Every structure is written in structure tokens, then in C-alpha cells.
């Protein structure tokens, strides 16, 4: 019994250390992505976008919006890099199965990263980005005391109304598409059904927009490439060019 309790205690301790290690790795990865995205946004933004030296309140609002946009961009970049990271980590583990220093590339870590990316993607898509937009456009309710909190209250109310509107539209659309009693039920299963459904709908809209814009981008890319590159002259007849040059030279001589 004592050995079984020791084994169970050792197993729990090992699981605890693995969980702590995964949390540290996820935090370091997200911090690296956040710093990278911060440099990207501050490099491409205009100088007057997030700085308003004449008004400290506007400057604080713009800094908060910058932080929310940086967080969202970091989540998006993590979602893009997660599949290559999963493939590369699997190949590294297959090449070095007994190496102690790469055992942290486990399936539990990748699964945890997928869950975090899905959670933060929904959070950024539904709350953070609309909040950042409405927060920069808000001025506070009429008659209320001006300040950051007045803008926060107005933004929260507008975001709540927008959330109810979008969820109502999704509920009506699901009731129309799925003609059964389960699709007409109220919003009790918000987290398990409606948010993934909304996320899938917005992802589908993004894919359709990408398919619509890709041909124009490819045509522009090939046009610019054709203008920059020099076409090869492998199949041209040099004798014909020489005869044309002699005829032009003779015509110029007669004119002179």
C-alpha cells in the first residue's frame, strides 16, 4: 500500500510539473508573439494614430486600443503558426525520440496550444476587437462625467447590444436552416453551440473573401512581376533585326 501511494504521489507530482512546464512554455511563446506583433503594428502605424499629446485621455484610450489590437494580432499569428509548429514538433520527436531536451514537445502541449488559440480567437473576435473599435469612437453618455470609465461604460453597453443582435441573428438563422425543435431552443447552450457556430460562420466569410480577393491579387502580382523582369530574347532572329537596323540606318541617311 505504501508503494502504491508513493507511485500515485509521484505520478501526481509529475503531472503537476508537466502542467507548470506547459504553462511556462505557452506564456513564453505568447509573450514572444506579443512583442513581435507590437513591433509590427508600431512600425506600420502612423505617428498620430495612437499618440495624442494634446489630450491625455485620448492617448490612454489609444494605448488601450493598441494593446487590444496587438493581443488580437498575436492570437492570429499563433493560429497561423500552430499547424506548422505541430508538424515540425512531430517530425523532431520522430527524429530524436530519446533526446531529453526536446521532450517538452509533447502532444499535451500541442493540444493545450490548440485549446488556447481557439479560446482566445473567440474572445478576440467577439469581444476584444469590437471593444477596441467602439472604445476609440466612444465619448461617454450625454450628461455623464467625462473620463475613461465613462467611455468604458458606453462601450460595454454598445458591445452588449451588438452581441445580443448578432446572437439573435445567429439563432434565427439556425432556426431557419435546421427545421427542428432543437434548433429553436433558447440560448442556454451559448458556449457549446452558438459561439463555435458564429466562429465557423465568420471563418467561412473570411475564406470566401480570400477566394474573392485572391485572383485580383495574383493578377496584380504577375503584372508587377512582368514589368520588373526583363523578358528573355531566346527565340528572336538576329539576322532580321540586323536587316531592320540597316533599313532604318539607310532611311535616316537619305533624310540627312
TrEMBL record:
- Location relative to the cell: Cell membrane; Endoplasmic reticulum membrane
- List the source organism: Probosciger aterrimus (Palm cockatoo)
Q: Name one Pfam family in it.
A: LMBR1
Q: Which keywords belong to this entry?
A: Cell membrane, Endocytosis, Endoplasmic reticulum, Membrane, Receptor, Transmembrane, Transmembrane helix, Wnt signaling pathway
Which Gene Ontology MF annotations are present?
transmembrane signaling receptor activity
The principal localisation class reads membrane
Cell membrane as a keyword? yes
> How does the entry describe its membrane topology?
Multi-pass membrane protein
One term under GO cellular component? endoplasmic reticulum membrane
Instruction: List the protein's name.
Output: LMBRL protein
Q: Which InterPro entries does the UniProt entry name for this protein?
A: LIMR (IPR008075), LMBR1-like_membr_prot (IPR006876)
- Which lineage is the organism of this entry classified under, starting from the top rank? Eukaryota, Metazoa, Chordata, Craniata, Vertebrata
